[in-house]
Amino acid sequence: MPISNKILRKIVTLTLVAALAVPALAKENKPANAKTNAFDFKKTSVFIREMEGRPDFPVATVIANDYVYTLQAMGEKIDTGRQNAIILATKLAQQKDGGFTPDKSSKTSSILYTDIALETLALLDAGNAVDRAKVKSFAASLKNTDGGFGFSPEAKKSSLATTYYAVHVLKAVNGLDAVDKAKTVEYVKGFAKKEGGFGPEKGPGRPNARSTYMAAYVLNALCSLDADTAKKAVLYLQTTPYLDKKSKERPDLDEQLYAIRALKEVNAGNRVDKTLAFNFMKRLYIKVNGGFGPLEGYGSTPDSTTTALRILSEIGKAKGVVAQVAKR
Amino acid sequence: MKLRKLVPALALTAAALTAVVAPAFAGRTGAPSSYKVVAWNDLGMHCACPTFAGFLLLPPFNTVRAQVLGYGSNDPVIIDSTNAATYGVTVSYAMADNTESTLQADPYFQQWITYAPKLFPGFAPVSGGKVQGLAGNGISGNMAYDSNLKDWTAVGIPAYPLVDANTAKNIMTDPLGGANRNPYPMTNVYVKNSTGTILAQTSTVTPVAFGGCCSCHLSLASANGYPATSAGSFAYLGKMHGQNSSKIDFNYLDPTGDGTSGPIRCSWCHWDPAMGESAAPGLANVWPNYVIMPGATFTQADVKVSQYSFSDVLHRFHSQSTKVLTQYDANVATNCYDCHPGNNVNCYRGSHKAKTALWCVDCHGNLNQRTAAGQLTQPWKASTLPSCTAASAGANPAFACHATNTVNGTVYPTNPTLFGKFINGRGHKGSIKCQTCHGSAHAEAPSTMTLDNTQLSNLQGSTSYSFPAGKDKTYALGVCVFCHPTKTSTWGTPPHL
Q1: Nearest CB to A299: which of B346, B357, B368?
Q2: Is A203 helix (H, G, I), strand (E, B) or coil?
Q3: Pair type for strands B55-56 and B264-265
Q4: Owning domain of residue A152
Q5: Which residue did the predictor score with more confidence, A205 or A266?
Q6: Distance (Å, whole) CA B63 – CA B207
Q7: Is residue A323 part of a domain?
Q8: Which one of B41, B57, B228, B482 is separated from A260 by 20 to 30 angstroms, measured CA to CA?
Q9: What is the mean pLDDT of residues A242-265?
Q10: For strand B89-95 and strand B186-193, is the pairing parallel, antiparallel, or unpaired?
């Protein structure tokens, strides 16, 4: 009896210690997110869920993506009925050629909406709901002789952005073998700028974070990102308002996101200025409805709110943990 | 300071609340014992450019309309130009926030003053020391009776977003980085007798804001090797324009022959009814001696009137450009605020917005639908605009519209014309304008913006009026006794036919 009492006492003690320790441990396991006082995510949720009241929910490819990403980033559940509605709508957006359209009224597929649709499905763990082989053949069909990829069967001209989307899509469906690696790498490197980083156009013009991320992603995906390119990209990025606190340039929501992603892509994620990004998000937050605007002083939209949540996710300040299935 | 502002505001409120008895008319047979006036802005929001040196999209041009009712007998008398003359009354307006001195000292408006004579030859933006709009109306003056549209109107008044002394009103972000501005200047509307005594007055919002163009175009210019300024943006736009089928890089167009390029008015070549024109005049007809500057790769044969309206080229390009979609906004076809004032300004702020998730595209269609339906080839025409009972042709509305108002084959409101259906439509005995009771389009009562609701709150603010549960004085004009002395003082839905 005394022995069993001792054992019992130890068990009780251990249980108590464990019970006390669990919340603390749980706290440690949470992403560095808890500082959400700056944002009323309940309001943000209501703002995003406004679209649930629409008879045509989920409306369109981009809007469905906004809905899924944002709610998941805030750690919210999407009910099965709505998940199914989104998956069905996304499946219906896939055309015979394998590509996806912006909405059900459109029949012209493009690589942009294909990329967005794939991300939505992946977020819902429904990547196999669509014909992935067709997706691969669609993306591959947009390949041009210059090594780049076009936007759609109608808009065939290559650009850095459309090449990025094609490579992104092909990687998602295990189709990188469809890329002519040498040609595509050469094509993408043609967008490098003297300041470091990459720009949206070849020739004169300044680099930007979006193009720098897109180029770095493609080069990485094709195992061709060299140290010098990465170093120059960081040199450029540190002149932007996303790393340079003294920059006089007005920060932009999209550019903030791509600056973070570009740094991570060139293996300089430790250079991300999380405080700067967080403070910028605070300035874009619209208290009245919980959304985020695209620029300081601008009203909120679902798209800009989603981008803000992407940024907060990237810097570990969102409540939920979103699978990094895509980086639109 | 606060009191100084409060006193006139209270006076204005009191005047709007109650029709002022007109003793001068007491002896006249049939003359109303008092008057009521309700005013509104025609569209609910106008855009104006912050710069005018490169080219012009939209000038300072705002239109205020009003209906005046003579009150006394059971049914009010609609005051038109004929009985106004009989009764000796005039209807006038005066902007409350835009003033001569602040407008003429505003650096953006000064650009308008400088370049307007080149953009609109023969037009003087300042006449006799006073600012005037393109239709000849200044910031104050008499309103004219429009016998076609059945209302009093001041067309094209030069309302412009201002840096207000009351900084709380400066909610609009300046995309060029300047001080925030007030996009909701007010206009007072008066009914006066022949001696200038105010018989009735009210006040309406005269909304005007900068669009969102600069928020993308400055970075677009920078990304292509041009300065991130409005001048750099215009220069790059000119280059891009030269790469389309027109071949015209308007950096090389010198309209006046003064040796410098620009300014260019888009509607010289692209028909734009927002400029009050039914066809594009063509540059050669506006500036016969225009010069194509050295280095141009186009000739005079290329400088011709486009078959496409301005609305068409602008909307279609942005929704179909792969550059726009992949580098700026994949959802541009539905993100109207990318271009229309969304810089903390809401074009769309009426009751529809408050009640549902209804968005611009539900009534108008998204840009792809609008293009496919051919809406943009006839911009602003009633045939392409939504009504209360149906969305625009080509739109795919997710929401049900209001029940049809068809009686004996006639669809009410009647008389839709240019900007028509709701905007210029009439209901209630065929004489009351939709906007008289419901407020401006896009800011329909009750609006989500308090300032829009001020007028109706004043008009229906009598303590003797009662409202059913869920309604209040900010709702559409619906207290019968407001117009009919012998009828109920309880708010209801008046007959729309």
Answers
A1: B346
A2: coil
A3: parallel
A4: 31-314
A5: A266
A6: 10
A7: no
A8: B228
A9: 95
A10: antiparallel
If you average pLDDT over residues B477-494, what whole number do you get?
A: 94
| Amino acid letter, residue A51 | M
H or E element in which residue B152 lies: strand B151-157
Secondary structure class of B294 (helix, strand, coil): coil
With a CB-CB cutoff of 8 Å, which residues 242-261 of chain A face chain B?
250, 252, 255
**Domain positions in chain B:** 2-209, 214-335
Q: Cα–Cα distance between B414 and B408 in angstroms, integer?
A: 13
Rounded Cα distance between B433 and B382, Å, is 16
Sign of CA dihedral A106, A107, A108, A111: positive
In the structure encoding, which two tokens stand for residue B320, read together? 């179909």
Establish if A162 belongs to a structural domain. yes
User: Taking a contact as any Cβ pair under 8 Å apart, which residues of chain A between 77 and 106 contact chain B?
Assistant: 102-103, 105-106
CB B477 within 8 A of CB B436: yes
Q: The tokens of A121 are what? A: 């499905």
Residue A21 maps to a domain: no
From the list A322, A279, A306, A317, the residue with the least C-alpha distance to A124 is A322
User: Which residue is it, tokens 């012998």?
Assistant: B486
User: B326–A295: do the CB atoms touch at under 8 Å?
Assistant: no
B271-288 burial code (b ≥16 CB/10 A, e <16): bbbbbeeeebeebeebbe
Per-residue pLDDT of A146-160, as tens digits, reads 999 999 999 999 999
Please check whether residue A84 lies inside any domain of the structure. Answer: yes
List of residues 6+ apart from B349 with CB closer than 8 A = B44, B442, B443, B447, B448, B449, B452
| SS (HEC) of B387-428 | CCCCCCCCCCCCCCCCCCCEECCEECCECCCCCCCCCCCEEH
Q: Give the side-chain half-sphere CA count within 13 A for B13.
A: 14
What are the pLDDT digits (tens) for A72-122? Answer: 999 999 999 999 999 999 999 999 999 999 988 888 999 999 999 999 999
Q: What is the CATH number of the domain that holds A123?
A: 1.50.10.20
pTM for this model (two decimals): 0.86
- Pairs of CB atoms within 8 A across A/B: 106
Q: How would residue A37 be classed by pLDDT, with cut points 50, 70 and 90?
A: confident
Prediction ipTM score:
0.84
Which residues of chain B does A201 touch, with a Cβ-Cβ cutoff of 8 Å?
A: 223-224
A5 pLDDT above the threshold of 80: no
